[in-house]
Amino acid sequence: MEGKKFNKRKLLNLVIFLVLGAVLLAAVPRWLTALPGVKESATGKVAPSGELAFFHVRKLAAPEFQGRAPGSRGADYAARYIASQLRRSGCRPAGEAGTFFQSLRIPCFTLLKRGLRWKPVVREEEFLLSDNVLAAIGPAEGGSVPQTVIISAHYDHLGAYGPGYFPGANDNASGVAVLLEAARVLTAEEEALPFPVIFAAWTGEEEGMYGSRHFASRFSPERIKAVINLDSLGTGSPVSFLVWTKDRKNRLLPIVEEAAREVGVAVDVRVLSSSSGYNSDHWAFAEDGIPAVTILSPDWLEKNHTFEDIPERIVPSKLENGVRLVVKMVEKLAERER
Question: How many angstroms separate the CA atoms of 244 and 236, rounded?
Answer without folding.
Answer: 17
